[in-house]
Amino acid sequence: MAEASVQLQISTLPNSPGVYQYYDKNEKLLYVGKAKNLKKRVASYFTKQHDNARIRLLVKKIKTVKHIVVATETDALLLENNLIKKYQPRYNVLLKDDKSYPWICIKNERFPRVFSTRRLIKDGSEYFGPYTSMKTVHTLLDLIRGLYQLRTCNYDLAEEKIRNDKYKVCLEYHLGNCLGPCEGKQTEADYNENIEAIRNIIKGNFKDSLNQFKNQMKQYAADLKFEDAQRVKEKIDVLENYQAKSTVVNPKINNVDVFSIVSDESYGYVNFLQISFGSIIRSHTLEIKKKLDESDKELLTLAVIELRQRFNSQSKELYLPFKIETEEGLKVHIPKAGDKKKILDLSLRNAKYYRMERFKQAKIVDPNRHENRIMAQMKKDLRLSEEPRHIECFDNSNIQGTNPVAACVVFKNGKPSKKDYRKFNIKTVEGPDDFASMEEVVYRRYKRLKEEEQPLPQLIIIDGGKGQLSSALKSLEKLDLRGKIAIIGIAKRLEELFYPDDPIPLYLDKKSETLKIIQQLRNEAHRFGITFHRDKRSKEALGTVLETIPGIGEKTVIQLLKQFKSTKRIKKASFDELADVIGTSRAKKIVTHLQEAE
């Protein structure tokens, strides 16, 4: 498919947080920005008059809009920062400096210190973040220090130096903020237990710490130290409301390529995320047209080679959804949980959004492609011998056995064809017999189509289980159509699809487009049938009431229904409106009778 116009690209953007990138006609990156709602933000560039000459010039040059979907605004902010630092786009005058976001560091040393920093030093220390707000970092560190006594000095607490009494405890020890490991007053094992608890707090696992806080608060309350209990309660509130760190960046994930794939009948969509020291520095989705019904495995194998060559990737580590053949020397992970799985899920999410956009663009530019894709999918899902371009669905309606009716709705190319809908009064069945009613209407429908040499559907859907399906099959046999038209029944409870001569029902994925179209057909048949049933009951009830009025006969009732179309309108009609149709004398009798009945 040719590159879509900018307006078309904007019309199919998702209403999600993310980062957008503007490129010129030469595929040169002009600008990177973040958005709470990608579609609204990008559209605003093209719908309003800009006072800033720089932005006016930028908008004139934009030919391609690319984007990366993320989970939250915070993620978008971090990712925007990473991309601007990496590519230095011409029109990004802000964030081009060396500003970096704060991290929390657990230092690689005996009795580790825990502190905030903006510099990442590769000395084996652990870094968590980055955080978009220094206030968040301070809040977390205050919480940690309030719960665990940690050293703040930068002494080298080697075992030998402590044993030789090299250091003396400082004021922090006397204030109760440190337990004095410098004099051997706290063991390394005890200190490291606290560090493990702190790791959990920073990662967002507050369960153990919250329990400890709550016990501490209860103890203060029991000792009547209510001010101390209130201070601890405030910390609990902050902990409970605190959001865990961003999933976009994890400093342990360094120099990795992430690939994911989604596909349909005709195309595969492979997303590529490039991670450099925990930051996403590139996202690209490749659309691959299938030629020989290739599997996802084959498509992903080709895409990994193509994308790594195109972007000259030197990464030796890959995160993939499943095993594929790769060149020698590459380390492949298939993540199942944790931070690695979150990044793989993010890649898959971008691939899905890209696929949705292409569908939306295709719908606008080439509606037939969308229709063809859905028809091919339905043929495959429902195990049909041909595409169901013409589908008919039947539903019975009767309440307490009165006024039995049936409805037939028609879909062509996956869309309702309302001019072809048909209503049926049940003629040969006495009482509420759904099976016999279904047999009658299916017979009448296709007998007529055959007699009039009208085109027959490729698929018939019966709203009901095995019983109704068997009844419909009898009619097709009588008309010598069994085996010539595919027919299935759908049971309401579990959305089971029943096939003739197959005792085991078919269950479709609840999110599949095929099931959604079948449900739409069933719901439309139900709505159409119920409406017809109610109208019939109302007319019959009103007809009976009107005909009991002295001087009002069947012809008068028919006259009124022809003019007003429904019972509601007759009841709401004024005396003058009724008189215009049936004369003043009969109108007066009807109005008087209806008023007395009310």
UniProtKB/TrEMBL annotation:
What processes in GO biological process is this protein linked to?
nucleotide-excision repair; SOS response
Q: Which SMART domains match?
A: GIYc
Keywords, sorted A to Z: Cytoplasm, DNA damage, DNA excision, DNA repair, Excision nuclease, SOS response
Localization recorded for this chain is: Cytoplasm
Q: Which residues belong to any copy of the UvrC family homology region profile domain?
A: 262-476
Which residues belong to any copy of the UVR domain?
Answer: 207-242
Cite the SUPFAM superfamilies for this sequence. Answer: C-terminal UvrC-binding domain of UvrB (SSF46600), GIY-YIG endonuclease (SSF82771), RuvA domain 2-like (SSF47781)
Q: Which Pfam families match?
A: GIY-YIG, HHH_5, UvrC_RNaseH, UvrC_RNaseH_dom
Q: Which GO terms describe its molecular function?
A: DNA binding; excinuclease ABC activity
Family in the record: Belongs to the UvrC family.
Q: Could you describe the subunit structure of this protein? A: Interacts with UvrB in an incision complex.
Summarize the protein's role: The UvrABC repair system catalyzes the recognition and processing of DNA lesions. UvrC both incises the 5' and 3' sides of the lesion. The N-terminal half is responsible for the 3' incision and the C-terminal half is responsible for the 5' incision.
Protein's name in the database: UvrABC system protein C
